[in-house]
Amino acid sequence: MLIDTHLHLDAAEFDPxxxxxxxxxxxVGISGFVVPSVDRDSFTRVAxxxxxNPDIHPAFGIHPLFVDAAVEDDIALLEARLQSGRCVxxxxxxxxxxxxxxxxxxxxHFFVAQLRLAQxxxxxxxxxxxxxxxxxxxxxxxIRVCSGIAHAFNGSRQQADAFISLGFKLGxxxxxxFEGSQRIRRLATELPLEAIVLETDAPDMAPAWxxxxxxxxxxxxxxxxxxxxxxGITVDEVITATGRNAVAALPAIAQ
Length: 255
What we know:
Layout: E1 2-4, H1 18-27, E2 30-36, H2 40-52, E3 56-60, H3 73-84, E4 89-94, H4 104-121, E5 125-128, H5 133-142, E6 148-150, H6 157-165, E7 168-172, H7 182-190, E8 196-198, H8 220-231, H9 235-249
């Protein structure tokens, strides 16, 4: 089972040809798409996509780079969404310490509030943790959630092991395709296969062969091959393992 565990299919970049993109992905064997929201406006867009496509698995959350535009009522809206509809995770949530002009205290506030919702509803989380792995781990140790995915993981082996020990899978995608991304490629090679899921983050994070272009969810097929080549195993082994891992991290995918 080949699953893209992170893409923003509701993004405006897909407005001209969204249905064609999905049909093309299905044709090449992609059987599931996890689409997280990023703010209150995207809650509805993601829900509509999922309602019309059983292979689209929605997650709802407020992205750390969108908290400056968020208001407290957005947490109540998120809570209502988690109560009322189909949902595989709370996400995309977390912290971003790469971008410098965002209020970190505000990020922390919304992250903690959303972790508490995930804990209350017994839902996994999809984590954004760019240059904030240790701070995210600190909150996860304080507010325990059932499972989840550390999206676009690019931390150290020690940090990877810490997320794995808390029950998380680690997302690998476009960054793994660059020969210069030595740390990420080493992690993709050396981490336990049962800890890895595949993702595209489409339309963002284009791979080595698509720089300057829209990233496509169909690229997850080639990402599976890249991971297989790095590990010296067959692509079928990668597809089977990462699909199983995605369901372990986000059990509602299988429902």
